[in-house]
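2024-03-11 09:14:02 INFO receiving multi-entity request
2024-03-11 09:14:02 INFO entity count = two
2024-03-11 09:14:03 INFO echoing inputs for audit
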Amino acid sequence: MSQFLQVLLSGLATGSIYALVAVGFTLVWQAAQTVNFAQGEFVMVPAFFVLIGTGYFGMPLWSALLFSLVLSILVLGLLFKKLVVEPILPHGGITLIIATMALGILLKESVKEFYAAEAQPFPALFPSDPIDLFGAVVSLQDILNLAISLGIVVLLTLFLNRTRTGRCMKATAQNPAVAEILGVNVKRMVLYTFLINAALAALASFLITPVYLAKFSNGETLGLIAFIAAIVGGFNQIRGALVGGLLIGVLDNLTATYVTAQYRAALPLVLLIVIILVRPQGIMGTAEGRTV
Amino acid sequence: MLGRWQTLAILLLGALAVLAPLGQGNYIIYVLTSWLVFSIAAMGLNLTLGYAGQISLAQASFMAIGAYVTALLTLAGWHWVIAMPLGLILCFIVGLLLGYPALRVKGHFLAFVTLAFNTLVFLVLRNEDWLTGGTYGLVGMPRPDFGLFSTMKQLHFYYFTLAITALAALLMWGIVRSPWGRAFKALRENPIRAESLGVDTRRITLLAFAIGSAYGGLAGALVTPLVQFIEPGSFGVAHSLRILLMVVVGGAGYFFGPFVGAGVVILLPEMLRFTEGYYLIVYSALVIVMLVFVPSGLIGIWARAREKFWPRQQLRGDMKEGAQL
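2024-03-11 09:21:47 INFO inference complete, emitting structure
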């Protein structure tokens, strides 16, 4: 029982980080109808910005994190939107999806060639001392990761629901034409979405990299898991991405412990196909009417 | 139908393909052969992406299925001619099974399902050592022998692959020009209109994906005797992406796009050798730039230039608007 609790808690901790990535992914999908296949790389890159900050500029950790956050928002948010999404979107969704795949390769190879091909140690934000919780031994790191990512999602939801800007962003996502008529600056709202996505990816990066070490190929599995979390949870809901992320984190840990460690990477495929067959709009999602 | 110039161009290219390897070293012939093999894989993906408008990220895993089935059967003493179709049929069936759930729903679900599937295939190839040899892979597959014509020599194998490629291309030409193929195109241009005209969009898309996957299997079945060594690492997600970019770079939806794209992807590393490790960085950056300016690929550049210098006679410009309504 205590082992089960332990597996469950550490699953929730990783799952909450997946959820952060999935939420960003969902936001971008809603705002620009874009599937960003470089999302996993967007989580991999900020960790290297931190390493550049601490290594090359000799910054203390907190300012390196801040430096990385700002740089990520600029590069992965603003530049991504201006240089890749804006010029390619008019050519069609598929073209843009393929461009994000090429961007993923570009980011991955750049980190590999210009920084390092080997996994780099990454400073832990929190001590990983084990603590005893109802007989289960969990690390403080896991508990804090869970708390912080849930906190971020709650704050984001509050922002989207309670502030004027947040509601304008939601309106843009639901119906850009009507939002524009009602005086919403649609272009700016879409830009905000991309900036928030980059910030979420950076935060997820800071939380997950101490667990896995910083490596150029970290994005591959992370991206896939985030897509599937978003689909499983429901593409058109933030809480859907949250549920999807937590579910995948827990199921992944349970499979690895109790069923098979060799095939744990197959879990997303199984989950994806089950969801598509049973409930294609996702667990929390609402069915979207087909627009003709 | 084909214009006079196009027929001439195809004959010229065919002659070039026959003459190219003469007097070349084994390495050059090997590169040319792998160009043909990847052209077949890209041709299949072009049907899925360019004609049916769906992204598949599992072409490398279909190559893997074709390659491993052929390898296991030929190692067991079967002839390639019998082993290859079995691999193709398996790919076709797997394509149907995989596409059925993914294409039930709107959106780019096939991309995610195939991405996850590629990971799964890689895991199976790596973990089930009793069948696939695990990370060490399989070695020593024989090349097909047709009595009088043995393909043991590199040059002979090139002509063998060329013949198969020509057959596969002819078949694809037939598919694209058949009522079916026209349905694929209608689907890409305007799915709602196609559906209202009685095209069963889901079935047609599923078929396009399954046929495209079988072409991947054929490419795999040729990799086995070409390299005579297969391992899971050469069929990962990165390779699926590589084939996808071949289609896009060449020009998705153009019949000859895959050949151009595969040529670029196979030959460019040789030309960009001076960039050393930065090759993939340069390449992916070029792809993004290309997508910004010419999203229809290299063939699209040619088509655009032709429109500019030799514009076709346009009878009624206003009909163009009408066709899009």
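2024-03-11 09:21:48 INFO post-check: The longest strand of chain B covers residues 138-139.
2024-03-11 09:21:48 INFO post-check: The two ends of chain B are 26 Å apart (CA to CA).
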